[in-house]
Amino acid sequence: MEETISLQDIFKTIKKRFFLIVCTTIAAIVISGIISFIFLTPIYQSSTQILVNQEKVDITTLNAQDIQTNLQLINTYNVIIKSPAILSKVIDDLGLDTTPTALNSKITVNNEQNSQVVNITVQDPDPKNAVDIANKTASVFQTEIKKLMKVDNVSILTPAFLPDNPTPVKPDPWLNMAIAAVVGLMIGIGLAFLIEYFDTTIKTEQDVEDFINLPILGLISPISDKDIKNTMAEVTIRRKR
Prior knowledge:
Oligomer: single chain
Shape: elongated
Strand content: 5-15%
Distance between the termini: 64 Å
């Protein structure tokens, strides 16, 4: 016969193991907070924007054919920006102690759909380095593209800047703690049902009723050691009399 669990049984188990569930959830939140605030390195982000034109002209003179031509170049430019030919010069100009491969992992290049504006985004533990790398990558690319493709069609729209109070983009300790709370709650509930499933001991009168499937007719009150000693003393006194 299949054993079914009613909604009442579920709430009963949660109520019975409520302390375990709360402790597991709090432990997950605390561990996540400690890791996020102490052990994870803050990462800062900075971005610069460049505009790709068919040739270096005023933005207001562009027509639809020029824009379509420029859009076809952007995918190629996205690759060139992160190529060793560009990143090696960025490293040399800034005196960075890194490699083009390592620097490549810090840089993200993308553009909005049907847009000639390319975003160069840099993430680094040092906010000033993130700004310097973003600006230097854009300027080096603007210079080197003239030699590589014999065109002069890149303009810097918005250079990166260092704010007064830089805020890291990751980790997000509060988000991590919120996720940890959900995970801890799920683990706590899972442990509660697991322990309840394997716990076959009988501790209360309710456990007896559930086990024999019969109502309890009476209870025997527990007798403490002190009551036993007092009773034995009274019996001894009566016998002496």
